[in-house]
Amino acid sequence: MRVHSRAFSTTTGLLLSLMLTASLVFTQERAGSLRGQVTDQFGARIVGASVVLVGADGKKKEVSTNAEGRYVVNGLEPGRYSLSVNSKNFALYENAEVEITGQEQKTLDVALTVALAKVEEITVVNEAGSTDPSSNANSIVLRGKDLDALPDDPDELAAVLDALTGASAIPGGSQIFIDGFSGGRGLPPRAGISEIVINQNPYTAEYERLGFSRIDIRLSPTTEAFRVESEFFLNHQTLNARNPYADRRAPTQSRYYFGALSGPLINKSASFYAAVQRRDTDDNAIVNAIILDSGFNIVPFSDSVPTANRVLYTDLRVNYALNKNNSMVFNYQVIPTSTTNISVGDLSLASRGYNISNTDHVFRISNTMIVNPTVVNQTRFQYVRGRFEKESNTFDPTISVLGAFTGGGSGVNQSVTKTSRWEAHNYTTIALGGNTLRFGGRLRHVNIDDSSPTNFNGAYVFAGGPGPRLDANNQMVLGDNNQPIMDELSSIERYRRTLLFLNQGLFPDVIRTLGGGASQFSIVTGDALASVGQIDLGVFAQFDWRVRPSFTLGLGLRYETQNNISSPLNFGPRLSFAWAPAGDTKRKTVIRGGFGVFYVRFAESLTLQANRFNGLNQQQFIVTNPVILDLFPRVPEIENPQSLALLQTVRRVADDLQAPYSYQTSISVERKLPHNFALTMTYLNARYLHMLRSRNINAPLPGTFDPEGSGSGVRPVANNGNIFQYESSGRLNQNQYIVTVNSRLNPRLSIFANYILNTVSSDTDGPGNFPANSYDLSGEYGRSSFDIRHRSSIGGTIDGLWGLSLNPFITMRSGVPFNITTGRDTNGDTIFLERPALANDLNKTGVVTTDFGAFDPNPDPGQALIPINYGIGPAFFNANLRVTKTFTFGQTFLPGAPGKVAKRDSPYRLIFVITAQNLFNNVNPGVPVGNLTSPLFGQSTSNSTEAGASRVSSNRRINIAIRFNF
Predict the structure, then answer these.
(1) Domains, the chain, ordered by start
(2) The whole model's pTM is what?
(3) 97-135 pLDDT tens trace
(4) Phi and psi dihedrals of 173, rounded to 5?
């Protein structure tokens, strides 16, 4: 293992030096300030609201909001303050804790609950634009009632957040951070989230990746007064519509129980938050495949296989103030989960199922220290220890009939993965007048011990290809020249002939002559245990310079490095600006732009694969020799590979592999329009270089391999098998045009909508992506699988009659590109990714005519192949609706002025929620089968479950939830 110790020590020393310098230089005492905006729960600005701050010493400062609903409280000494906001016709907002850390201008927006009977007295005004780097109008901040509109199920919540970020159109997808830490497995319960921020300050050097795909989740805070939250969630199959790809409405049920308690531990010094959620989901995996019946006839097959998922989420947090300038947060979570019948569904039969269990222990410590009124230091540490177990339902060899079904065992056998991860952050913020300097770094380490006997039982593959025509009696049909008439056989037909003729007692060589026989066999032997350790470091400095009130410039630099690859010079400069044009005194227009270089880390899982299949630890054999293939259905003994003349398949990382990086550039125009509308138009260009891919660098040389000839093919490295190498030779180019509109039309109605026009071209879709021809990569550049051309989301809040709150959320997109392949290995690289050509002669043997065109799976030399991702899948439309009714009751009394008490009405809240997912029961097919030799080619075998549209077993779902809070 190679570690860039010099780079680590240099950057760490620089970070510590900067922190020491900052603490020595900035010692002058200057007061801070708190500012923000007061709105109702729908976003309308509130004029004349009373904002009160009370310090730890009991001193009080009070101001009122201006005509724009804004307030400013100046002259605040460092320390903790209690914030309350009061306005006529609104419920009292109180007990919010604010920490003033120094000279910088801290911002806190407040949303008040409207007294619905008197909403006509509210004053609504347009908001002025801001040139603050973190105030970009195309960011999304969800808190309060906005969070109530999100799905309760964490998996469905993740899908909705991905839809909001457009992550499916971004290589690598979205990044999720929980309280500033890299996210673990899944999301926390929605009821335990206080705020979600998407795409804020996208070009800051603090972020390793562009902020457009960043999702920051902040957990519910501790409180100084006792607070109780509870929720019960239910879904049952009687409330759901049948999955259109299932033959019946399968039994399903989901039950969630959530409870949380927060309050004080030590008066004015320590408070706590404790939460627990239990999620029990009984669902089904839907199988749609092509199999053989007992009479060796090819028949469609559909099945619903029960699955069960159990999750226990526990969260305990303690906030402790060491003194007025130093506070600590301690957090511990334990999250055990279990799921049955993983890997079942679509073409995968029930025998392929395996069960998993996983337990994560998460420890977090955060410290915020006010060095002096102008300098704040934050330190965070997270440690995650996990144990992940998998066990197959059966231990039979896997049988994969390409494009028809996958049966036999799952191949995972019994595996255990032990993971230990930690990460440490240290950030320093310095206020320099109206400017801000922020610098710091993050150090991460992961260690994985993975005992995985995957494919130790072997796997057979049956592919399509040419074979003799048979009559109704399964006899060979001869032509006029007394030679067999050849047809293009499907994979399931080859499998049928194999089983049929084995049952008749024919010898394997005869079966192969009649068009039967397996196409490939693979097996793994050796030591099941493989390990990897990886560490990476990122340090940054970011200076936000307010050149003048109407123009802000962001200048940043980030440096990253890691072990396991030699790519030390990963410097990422960042530049951004925000400008309000001269003459626009109300700042209704703000123009923003940015440029940055962003690096992608080489994942530890890829290094683990290379360590596992290095030829010594585990031995992997991929066999195409008919002598061994004709042993089917028996599994050959591989104790002595040399006696069988088997060549190993190894994995390795290219010596010249570099960390992938991208150049990101964007320009946007934000405009405030009449009637509280805000419009943002953004152009984003991305150029990715050194993208990861896999390539068989020891595949047979072009023209030397004969699919019908055993042992054919000349390899560059003689007497060696496949060498699957991770390389950084890919590229990707992307252009996005994004339009965002939002409006708070009135206190009862709000709306937001976005539209994304997206074009992406690339020659790789990720580290596991192989080219069709290992020696010619030029044909791989084309439409990327990320090229979802059109995407749109629409949502909002409607407060109607009888106190009901409606939250619709609609997502739409055009089709997802998919690759069309011949389903055969005709170049000997043991990977079934060859693409056909467009047919020049429709009468040529083997030509396949489809709705996507007429394809020739046996192109002549020099004939152009179809581009990658030539097929386009079905479009997607989904509408979700959430209906909420809140009942409030009771009274409580709080300490007020000396000798008096303040009465707060209705502290108890009983909330009823009904959610309809895929309200109109629209059928959204998944990505079609792209294998030309499959009888299912061009068909979708399952429904799409993106953006929380539906679960696997149902198309439309109706959920019921009850909450009680006080």
Answers:
(1) 31-125 (2.60.40.1120), 227-247+256-458+528-835+870-888+908-965 (2.40.170.20), 465-518 (no CATH)
(2) 0.82
(3) 677 765 556 777 787 754 322 222 222 233 336 777 777
(4) 65, -160
